[in-house]
Amino acid sequence: MNEPVVSFVNVNKTYDGKALVVDDLNLSVHRGEFLTLLGSSGSGKTSSLMMVAGFEMPTSGDILLDGRSITRLPAYRRNIGVVFQNYALFPHMTVAENLAFPLQARKVGKAEIVKKVSRVLEIVRLTGYEARKATQLSGGQQQRVALARALIFDPALILMDEPLGALDRQLREAMQYEIKHIHDTLGISVIYVTHDQDEALAMSNRVVVLEKGKIEQVGTPKELYETPATAFVAGFVGENNCMKGRVRLAESDRCVIAMPWGDVSAITVGPAGAGRDTTWSVRPERIEFDSGSGDLDNVYDGVVKDVVYLGDQIRIYVAIGGNTFVLKVTNKSELAVLTIGQRVKVGWRAKDCRAFGLPH
Ligand SMILES: Nc1ncnc2c1ncn2[C@@H]1O[C@H](COP(=O)(O)OP(=O)(O)OP(=O)(O)O)[C@@H](O)[C@H]1O
Ligand SMILES: [Mg+2]
After folding, report:
1. Could you read off the pLDDT of 43-98 as tens digits, one per residue?
2. Domain range spanning residue 347?
3. Cα–Cα distances in Å, from 110 out to 67, 99, 113, 127?
4. Which ligand is nearest to the CA of 45?
5. Helix 95-105 vs helix 139-151: crossing angle, to nearest 10
């Protein structure tokens, strides 16, 4: 798993000669890995993928495939499968014709084509749909045909750019599972692009958080969620209560932040020495109602501002000092009834509270 299949080496990309939309990207995708580029709109995800596919050239730097530079290799010679959001099947063609088309263009024999078409349809579970017109398929089925088309050349690497963006939530979750399953059974490498952090966490071996063309953090879903390295990642991956404050005391990996309502003990993540401003965060599910057992390092008086019923979860908004915190509680039958305006004691452990340095 450690051998790189794709490497970005000091890759820069600008379209206008001024703004770098990909800024000194260094990244290796391991063989067999499901790697996701996660970032907000305009962060450079598609541009990065296009350079691997061969539809865009890096302005400088190099991209290696199996250790060899492909920067000058035309797209059709890279043997990489590509799936994009607008699946762009030929609408007037049948499913089989859509799949056969790229093979015919490369002069693959008829018998071989039939074999390959039937194999990829089996993989995406659309056996029997050969004669259907693309227009007679649901969105999810069309997306599966697009995936089958990307698989038809047996590529070792597949690139997917927001492939499920057009689907409704239920279908998207079903397709996430299927894509993951195909990845696991075929053992192919996948570079996946999404701006949906739930999707990134659910599907990936590793996630790359991109912002303004730069890597903010690379890690497993668990690493990104549990140990975000920057305030940006803390706010972008999963939900977080993020607050600004000033560090009052700092020692080794712990610090104390002075807030208007009291001190907050936290883990020091970024450069956050005494006297420095910091953004600190605590996850909604790590804030608890204080039972008085003394196991919470930070306990404060709060007032319930709002209670939102979400079925499996309940979101509770609690004001501490002038700031509103979100708490997320699993809906258990014995959950106490909370009323708006109720006074509560809430708190969290220092280990669940992270103090980040401010960006320079
Ligand atoms: N062909 C192009 N010509 C000029 N500018 C471009 C081109 N393609 C992308 N850009 C610009 O490059 C930046 C990065 O775009 P990119 O498409 O890589 O972002 P993205 O992360 O995929 O965003 P989204 O989530 O909206 O798809 C944006 O500011 C965009 O406007
Ligand atoms: Mg994009």
Report:
1. 999 999 999 999 999 999 999 999 999 988 998 889 899 998 766 788 889 999 99
2. 240-357
3. 34, 13, 5, 18
4. 1
5. 20
Residue 279 belongs to a domain with what CATH number?
A: 2.40.50.100
Boundary (domain end) residue, out of 184, 211, 231: 231
In terms of domains, do 274 and 211 share one?
no
- Both 212 and 262 in a single domain? no
Atom of ligand 1 nearest to the CA of 210: 21
Q: Which atom of ligand 1 is nearest to the CA of 47?
A: 18
Ligand 2 midpoint to CA 34 (Å): 18
Pick the last residue of a domain from 231, 252, 273: 231
Q: How far apart, in whole angstroms, are the C-alpha atoms of residue 157 and residue 187?
A: 10
Q: Could you tell me if 47 and 39 are in contact, meaning their C-beta atoms sit under 8 angstroms apart?
A: no
Please report how the helices 139-151 and 169-186 are oriented relative to each other, as an axis angle in degrees rounded to 10: 20
Residue pair 253/340 in contact by the 8 Å Cβ criterion: no
For the entire predicted model, the pTM comes to 0.91
β partners of residue 356: 279
Q: Quick one: DSSP state of residue 133? A: B
**Ligand 1 center–CA 224 separation, angstroms:** 24
The predicted pLDDT at position 269 comes to: 92
Name the residue at shortest CA distance from atom 4 of ligand 1. Answer: 15
Q: Whose CA is nearest to atom 12 of ligand 1?
A: 21
Is 44's C-beta closer than 6 angstroms to any atom of ligand 1?
yes
Please indicate whether residue 55, judged by its CB atom, sits closer than 6 Å to ligand 1.
no
Question: Do 20 and 129 belong to one domain?
Answer: yes
pLDDT in tens, 207-230: 999 999 999 999 999 999 999 999
Q: Domain holding 206: CATH number?
A: 3.40.50.300
Which residue's CA is minimally distant from atom 5 of ligand 1? 15
| Ligand 1, pocket-test mutation among 14, 15, 199, most atoms within 8 A of CB | 15
In ligand 1, the atom with minimum distance to the C-alpha of 162 is 27
194 CB within 6 A, ligand 1: no
- My answer on whether 38 and 180 are in the same domain is yes
209 and 279 inside one domain: no
For residue 335, the model assigns a pLDDT of: 66
